[in-house]
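Late entry, written up from scratch paper. The run itself happened at the end of the previous shift, but nothing got recorded in the book at the time, so transcribing now.
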Amino acid sequence: MAEIVKRKKALSVNPLKSSQTIGAALAFLGLARSLPMLHGSQGCTAFGKVFFVRHFREPIPLQTTAIDQISAVMGTDDSVVEGLKTICENSRPAIIGLPTTGLVETEGTDVTLAVRTFRDKYPEYADVVVVPVSTPDFTGCLETGFAAALSALFEAVLPAQPQGLVGRRPRQVNLLVNATLTPGDVEELKVLVEAFDLRPVVVPDLSDSLDGHLPENDFNPLTTGGTPMDDLRTLGEAAATIVVGASLSKPADVLAARTGVPDHRFDHLMTLAEMDRLVMTLGEIAGRDVPVRIDRQRSRLQDAMLDCHFSIGFSKIAVAGDPDLLNGFAHLLTSMGAEVVAAVSPTNAPVFARIPTAMVKIGDLEDLHNLALEQGAELIIGNSHTVATAERLNRPLLRAGFPQYDWIGGFARTWIGYPGIRQSLFDIANLLLSREPGHVAPHRSIYAQENVHAPGSASENPGRPH
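Output as recorded:
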């Protein structure tokens, strides 16, 4: 078990985390015809939208209750009710996500009560699902907000008790995916499930809404693509649920309690061992042998592990990110013989009891800089906020996590699956090789031919002996 070193500073220096509010909004962006409405000031939503647009390089549908200083003191329920009414009138979405911000949480808002008031006042919009979720940005991080949104979603959409329909759709497999998985990761996971002749239902499906595609219409105020409401209502009829990410423990519990569908949980899918366990699980669910194509991908990964071992083994690496991302990379790197000498997370999490590092620092990017410098890290892994840290340390950077605003295509990168792990190892090895460890600079004699006629040489000073 890693030692958890908690923060002792009175402030954050170069913060690492993204807020819970953004994490909840990201979860709602993976649902079809949805529209997140952040309960807070216009600035809260504007900053979140900038993060999303720069990361995904796509138009992002976000709304706000736009409270002002008066309502922040006198009460914000009316802003929620009127905001929901306006969205329903203008866009008629299938679902509205309602995450809170730190401002209204400090004020003491009760979004659940505000939603009930909206239902009583405007019954004509009963078909629009509204999901309130408390996500104060002064606690947690992106992945905890993402998980909280999924718990609230299941409580709002699924019946309180199992309906006894488990296995009615014997080829359906629910995929509950965490905030660490990119649209490329989700797509790889879907392809893997389909290879066993199973039908995946992903919650939330960012590979269908934020994968970087050109929509048929020029403008849509709602999400284009994502998990449809009709699929959400069939989660209780699946044969099994695959849960990816330790941060989804609570929403997985809610889903299991409300559907009765058996689940299989994975902390991450970034090592050969965990991918093997997933493939064997899918084979058992489908009652089929592993497809030849999957065997071939596995053998390629094994060959890549041999190719990269001498570059990655015994290297010292610093990683910064949310707990699930940090845990996944720690297992990947240590499985290749590397040492994670600096592990920094914005928040504590139960998964750190299983992380293969000596210590995890709960802190910011100043802590990452100090630990990486002290421990002699050779490579930095983190989001775009870590660029300045890597430059100051003169170390190569592998961009991973959210946000990535200075690297086109980072949002679509595939990290999981046999092909994704293979490419990750290639990239890590190449970055380490770029530092040319162990090379000795060539010695150039002062008597070498190129130095004879150099400025200031003896040939230009006849008075000096040769």
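The chain has a mean pLDDT of 92.
(Scratch paper discarded after transcription.)
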